[in-house]
Amino acid sequence: MKIKRFLAKNMREAIRLVREELGPEAVILSNHRAGDGIEVVAATDYDAALMQQAVRRAAPPPEPPSSPAPAPSPPAGGGHDPLPAPAPPPSPELQQLRRELGGMRKLLESQMAGMAWRELREHPQRLRALQTMIQLGVEPTLAREIAAELPEASDDERARFLPLGLLTRRLPVVRHDVLLDGGVIALVGPTGAGKTTTLAKLAARYAERHGTRDLALVTTDHFRVGAQEQLFTYGRLLGVPVQTAAGPDELRAVLARLSDRKLVLIDTAGVGPRDAQLQAQLAVKGHGVQNWLVLSATTQAADLDAVIRRYAPAAPNACVLTKLDETLRIGGVLSATVRHHLPIAYCCDGQRVPEDLELARANALVLRAMQLARTTPARVDDATLALQFGAVHAAQ
After folding, report:
1. Distance (Å, whole) CA 376 – CA 136
2. Is the pLDDT score of 223 beyond 80?
3. Is the domain 178-360 a CATH 3.40.50.300 member?
């Protein structure tokens, strides 16, 4: 076990020094104010050392050597070797030590979160930035990172607008109207996200620029009642052919017939992230297909995270945000795209085809988040911030 003392201006710098010197597995044993700064005592291999001591204390004394027991005879007629015996459960002393170490870890994390919160309160401009981010609906982790980027010496005007600029800079967006490049694009995502309506908007957008001669629509949705009829209706209105494909082989044949089309849009089945049909839907990847993940802004943050993770095998090239007009906060869906580095291509904020489809712009999305927050303001007091901020640290 290696123990070392660190002196720093604040807790953030102390943690950085500890990680650089002792690595990410180091444990902070104590901390206290030292003059104008803070003194931290940290150790590495702390848990491992205690575990080894506990194991030595809990282990029974070695038995005197004896002649080895004869190996068990195999069953008559041959067969497989006998299964190894299960490992004995850990001793009560070792179990108790593990519980104590877990409690110690939680206590240290809570203390560090409290110190970080007190440090934040010493910089009112950063505290105000954190409050602004939470009002926009931004996840606490991202909100804390943006607030931490704010320079300590900032005038009020800069402190007011800089956090919004930092959020804008973090948003991943597609920089041009990528739809006009053509190709084969499949819209994937959970049920109710708005894939079919979004596909119709994309088709109409392309038709406005290039006509319908080089455009085709394909549906692989054979599960939802009326799904194909809805797409065929859009196809008739736009004057665009619609093909159906029941599986990967049939899809390959359909795409071969449509190889002369510059843009082919595929509407996939709407299934939940835990649905057994999900793997079949992910099989659309391949055959030169780009997958775009459709995310509803009305979905809760935890569900958005689950959706993006479950659709990761599809390797989505971009995402489309839908239902921006049906939520009071869009910070959650923006946070999800930042965390998963998922570029936003287009945004939908209504049912009209194709009017309610816009090219994604980072500054426009942040402005939209601000307007929603002003329309339905939420009071975020110090107690709420302290609870959220501390919970973020404890979860890390």
Report:
1. 10
2. no
3. yes
